[in-house]
Amino acid sequence: MPPRTSDTADPADTAATAPALRVAVLADSDTRWKWGALTARRLTAPGAGPGGDARPVEVSGLLLRGRATPTPRQLAEVGEVGVDSGRVREVTAVEFLHAVRDEGYDVVVLALVGGAVQAMLHGLAALRLARRPVLVTGYVGVVYEKLADGLLLRHGADVVLANSRDDAERFRAVYEGVGADASAVTEAALPFLGGEPYRPQEGRDTVVFAAQPSVPASRADRTYLLRRLVEHARLHPDREVLLKLRSKPGEHTTHIEELPYQRLAERLPGGPPPNFRLVYGHMGEVLDRTDLLVTVSSTAALESLHRRIPTAVLSDLGVREALGNHHFVGSGLITSFDRLDDGHRPRPDARWLAGQGVAADGSYPTAYDTARARVTGLLAAGALPDLAPYYTPASAPGYLPGILARHHLAPDGHPLPGSAPKEPGRVRGAVRGTVRNAARGAYRHGVQRVAPVIRRMGEL
């Protein structure tokens, strides 16, 4: 920011002449795009929070090319995240590294799976930039599996966001337990919480089941949940029962969905009752008309709890780590379809709720103050220290090279031979783009449609 000419200079005038704060979000799925874009906005809101930077903010979206790269429909359904669609583009890992090198970002939010975060950290370290951006990462929702693995793959970022007080304590314990620096762990909250507190509406009675792409995984378990939901609708004909789906068949989200509920619903004997429907769209808009949110372990439960909507976590398939509903032990929310059929409405335990970052007490507007102040401090510090991830070719020689190779990076973080993007002429570039898009479409079709069928055939 340029120096003031007077001690009495108007901050607004200074902000007007200062260059924009340039922020990039790199995401690899629709849900992580939503988390990353909203996190970027909350961390860099002009003038917000302690030490807030008054500069205007310019956010660019970079979508990491892969099997779960969001489609235009998915991006539109995510809702308003404050990023101009013209500033969103698809990139490979190497193209992302070149963008950081050439485009001068101040902050980069890595909204990626753990292995991809680790690869980008090593790739950025290999660039040896004179002034590198502040690097932020974290988790999209409930962290119920691969805690140590995921955290150590994220180690090395300047800020590792924890969505709750409990998560922050767990994250620090993991880092300190292996002798890694835990200072990057910063408590915040899920960035997409919002909406008006729940108020019952006379004449409205809506139950929403928040489906998950990979939980549960088996056909029998998914068919069971669908059957019980339909039976619940038949038992309560005056109640609207909605099955909220994340993606349409053929689309991928953060997790692979091999058995879409849409396909299972087509095989319901006699079809569903008229008060049962499949719905898509922004979760917040669905919650606007929800009187009971039911799920196995979806992050939608936290959105619902934030708004004080009655929320139920199912025990019908067991309370198991593989399902993620073990995260809700002690919450008071775990119940069964039998009890819901009889009219039971769980009430959350206040102490459990206080540790989960849902800010149902009204403290959400300040939830990002600490993280925002940390980012602002790092931006003001000038040149940042060299990146130092926990994993190195010396500390994890049997693990790290494979992670980097998946993103076409050598063990030292430099691009592998032949992986650097080229600058073709206009005609050649158009042809190459067409061929690349066709190949990518064929790859996605193979991963999303053909491979699941082959796996199911192998189980026969």
Topology, element by element:
Blueprint: H1 11-17, E1 21-27, H2 30-43, E2 57-64, H3 72-78, E3 88-91, H4 93-103, E4 107-111, H5 114-127, E5 134-137, H6 147-154, E6 159-162, H7 165-177, E7 185-187, E8 206-210, H8 219-235, E9 240-244, H9 261-265, E10 276-279, H10 283-287, E11 292-295, H11 300-306, E12 311-314, E13 334-335, H12 337-341, H13 350-354, H14 369-380, H15 400-405, H16 426-459
Parallel strand pairs: 1-2, 1-4, 2-3, 4-5, 5-6, 6-7, 8-9, 8-11, 9-10, 11-12, 12-13
What is the share of helical residues? 25-40%
Give the SSE order as H and E letters: HEHEHEHEHEHEHEEHEHEHEHEEHHHHH
If you average the pLDDT, what whole number results? 85
Number of helices: 16
- Beta-strand level of the residues, as a percent range? 5-15%
Q: Sheet with the most strands?
A: 7 strands, parallel
Strand adjacency order, main sheet? 3-2-1-4-5-6-7
Contiguous runs where pLDDT drops below 50 for at least 5 residues: 1-9, 424-436, 453-460
Cα(first) to Cα(last) distance is: 65 Å
What characteristic shape results from the CA principal axes?
A: globular
How many beta-strand segments?
A: 13
Estimated radius of gyration: 23 Å
The chain-level structural class is: alpha/beta
Task: Report what the structure shows.
The protein has 460 residues and is α/β, with parallel strands linked by helices. It has 16 helices and 13 strands. The strands form two sheets. A seven-stranded parallel beta sheet has the order 3-2-1-4-5-6-7. The chain has a six-stranded parallel beta sheet with strand order 10-9-8-11-12-13, with helices on both faces. It is globular and about 65 Å long. Residues 1-9, 424-436 and 453-460 have low confidence and may be disordered.
